[in-house]
């Protein structure tokens, strides 16, 4: 299959690769890309700019008559958002060789009890069901990986800077927690006789915030994005609660300390409220990634040659680049977005900023593919 | 239509009435009944015992050769639980002549945006859509109303008593609350820049508990049975939260003070967290109901004649009787239930206890219908 002048292949989980063979096609390729999936009620720039932008960057290079020495590859990663199967960067995590994920996906199901393998099968993927490790890429497959992305924070817009050059990606940890109590009728059960799983969840949510603020660093963040009560009726004391917690830092140890404190708080709540901690699981707890010096240099030089302002910065959101860094030297190019908004419909980037990002990406790919 | 020897009619919202004409059918009837709907993941005794038990009580009286002076009516009330349209005792509230409810139901919708009128229409009811006040009953329609119900609390079982005779029903208030914030990406938005609608909800849930405990009376209860976050993704800061709060007391003024304190806490949270209180509504705030002396007397006498132990008690749960008390003298008969469990699958009453309840109800109906 060919698309935008690239030869296209898909792997067994839906990662899509478009390849432009270089003058020396046997060399390791330079890769770029991002994702096109989104969370519910999201915007349309997160990820998408880095896939369409990558295709456009290749078209720019082709139009200019450029001939790459190394092959260039555009990757559209599958399931970057954790929405359906609870794990972020599913596609790039597998490419980077996560045996744990390849195993756990054999039995993963979504909220409607559809298995990952059935979902992938229905979408036409996963012909090789029994062994998702077929998706793994070898180290050395790529000589470099660069991802173009909106900042998802307010810094570039606030400071009027066109390009952010990412030096490190903050390390995310995701937790899933469940409390259980006896439930009961909201009128008949007196307060001293209750063990309300919903109030246990509220208490833990506020404890997450407290532990994050106590870390002493502005770089520590923590969020309870999911808090669900069962049975969820106004006149019923919650007998179960389910929380999903996300906490991140550029300092792995400091973040792990927050995770440990959240665990201690959950245990303490079981004692004070008489509820059961029926689940406390660390779904993922990834190390941060450091960008490669040579890739940073290539982006910096491209930015200067294009007369654009730039700034070295940390990515507080994580990206497929976090996992591609396990396979190859990695770098990221950020562009400003409106008020730093992301993961909501107001997410926006101007055509000028996207155009600047594509130009920097194209020139960076040209440089890296010549090395 | 006839069922179990009763002539049956339905009204425009699905209340079902089964009538046994007495020797003097022009007299006001004695009524009994309850509901057969349930909350999600509920038990099968709450309400149902009072409908099937009422039918059985009538059969007992018929088998015994008894001829009532006044007519006897069994009522199966529609939508006692507030699950679908957010308002408890929808059927009996309308029978009791709630103009507010008759008006608001014209525009009420469920969570899937299906209107009350469409839902009633699909179920074959509400031929008289434009005027639900057609359902209202006149004061004096019934000379007395008695409801048989499981206690939904542990007292009768704990004390080994067969029959609870209800002297008053605690007064429920229901609130719906919504907070709104800016949402955003769980990694990119730093903690000081957040206004997390989910944490606002958790804080209010804990404030509800605090205000209830501060009332100084064991009779005050409060519950957050519904707490929902939007968009509900692990990597997204909640931009909206929705709570439904239930608080009850046998003292109306004390309960209204709790409602006022919850409102003050919600306003305070908007200031400390920078969120918007986009909704704060008292859905219902009903006065308590006092049982009628003559009905209490009839139940007490019936219990004694049957050699059963009994106890005068308060109903902390509310029931259709709360609204039937607006139409006619009212009383309730409680039977023990396992560990006081209700609104969950473990809800249970023994055949012996249900049988005792039915006998007491039958004898009470016999007495009241002869007066």
Record keyword descriptors for this entry:
homodimer; 371 residues; alpha/beta; Aminopeptidase; Alpha-Beta Plaits; 4-stranded antiparallel sheet; 32% helix; Amidase_Cbmase (chains A, B); hydrolase (chains A, B); Bact_exopeptidase_dim_dom (chains A, B); hydrolase activity, acting on carbon-nitrogen (but not peptide) bonds, in linear amidines (chains A, B)
Task: Itemize the secondary structure elements and their pairings.
Two copies of one chain form a homodimer.
Chain A: E1 2-3, E2 6-10, E3 16-20, E4 29-35, H1 48-63, E5 72-77, H2 90-95, H3 99-104, H4 116-122, E6 142-150, H5 155-159, E7 163-169, E8 171-180, H6 197-213, E9 221-230, E10 240-249, H7 252-273, E11 276-285, E12 289-290, H8 293-305, E13 310-315, H9 320-324, E14 330-335, H10 351-370
Parallel strand pairs in A: 4-5, 4-6, 6-14, 7-13
Antiparallel strand pairs in A: 1-2, 2-3, 3-5, 7-12, 7-14, 8-10, 8-11, 9-10
Report on the architecture of this protein.
The structure is a homodimer of 371-residue chains. Chain A is of the alpha/beta class and 371 residues long. Chain A has two domains: 2-170 and 289-370, 3-Layer(aba) Sandwich (Aminopeptidase), CATH 3.40.630; 171-285, Alpha-Beta Plaits, CATH 3.30.70.360. Chain A is built from ten helices and 14 strands. Chain A has helices at residues 48-63, 90-95, 99-104, 116-122, 155-159, 197-213, 252-273, 293-305, 320-324, 351-370; strands at 2-3, 6-10, 16-20, 29-35, 72-77, 142-150, 163-169, 171-180, 221-230, 240-249, 276-285, 289-290, 310-315, 330-335. In chain A, the strands form two sheets. In chain A, strands 1, 2, 3, 4, 5, 6, 7, 12, 13 and 14 form a ten-stranded mixed sheet that branches. A four-stranded antiparallel sheet of chain A has the order 9-10-8-11, covered by helices on one side. In chain A, strand 2 and strand 3 form a beta hairpin. The radius of gyration of chain A is 23 Å and the shape is globular. The interface between A and B is large, with 74 and 74 residues.
